[in-house]
Specification:
The chain is built from two helices and twelve strands, in the order ααββββββββββββ. By secondary structure, the chain is an alpha+beta fold. The chain folds into two domains: 63 residues, no CATH class; 77 residues, Beta Barrel (OB fold (Dihydrolipoamide Acetyltransferase, E2P)), CATH 2.40.50.100. The strands form four sheets. It has a four-stranded antiparallel sheet with strand order 5-12-10-7, with no helix packed on it. Helix 1 runs antiparallel to helix 2.
Length: 185
């Protein structure tokens, strides 16, 4: 059996084990999370997302969290009978002052209207739709966001000057994520 088939078989077994009812002494949700964590460790995965319905699960090798965001400390379940989460250890307080944040550029943030992959140009050989410093009008194409193999042209909602482009070409973006800073004219 090929390597890929073995990995697929192990994933299927882990999912089956995660869905299987646990003995009455154990919480089935904890057993399911443990099985998923085992899969994550085995395959060097870094992200686990469980859907609001509790049935859909997404595992990822790379994090989709924007750079610079700090992730919350994971909650660890105590081995006690209550199964209550143990709060994460408090980080030591620093007596040094935090470095000053650079001033945010003047203008309004233009937010992504959908989840997908951000592209600055129509093709790799084409020039970008806009560059920092360009003046745009309402309905000027700013970028393309690919979602489910559909390329969606994203247009400016108002005219102004592109002060800053906040996303790299080919980067995954989330709904509501800032893409550009545009200063009204």
């Amino acid at each position: 059996m090929g390597r890929k088939k073995k990995a697929v078989k192990r994933v299927a077994e882990a999912v089956k084990a995660a869905r299987a009812p646990a003995p009455a002494a154990h919480d089935p949700e904890i057993a399911r999370v443990r099985a998923l964590l085992g899969l994550m460790q085995e395959h060097a995965l870094v992200e686990l997302e469980i859907g609001p319905d509790g049935h859909s699960v997404r595992l990822s090798k790379t994090s989709t969290a924007p750079m610079g965001l700090s992730m919350a400390a994971p909650m660890v379940y105590a081995g006690g009978a209550t199964g209550a989460p143990t709060p994460p250890a408090a980080a030591p307080l620093s007596t040094e002052a935090a470095p000053a944040k650079p001033a945010a550029p003047a203008g309004e943030k233009f937010l992504s209207p959908m989840v997908g992959t951000f592209y600055r140009a129509a093709s790799p050989e084409s020039k970008p739709f806009v560059m920092e410093g360009d003046t745009v009008k309402a309905d000027t194409v700013l970028c393309i966001i690919e979602a489910m193999k559909v390329l969606n042209e994203i247009k400016a909602e108002q005219g102004g000057k592109v002060v800053q482009i906040l996303v790299e070409n080919g980067e995954a973006v989330e709904y509501g994520q800032p893409l550009f800073v545009i200063q009204s004219s």
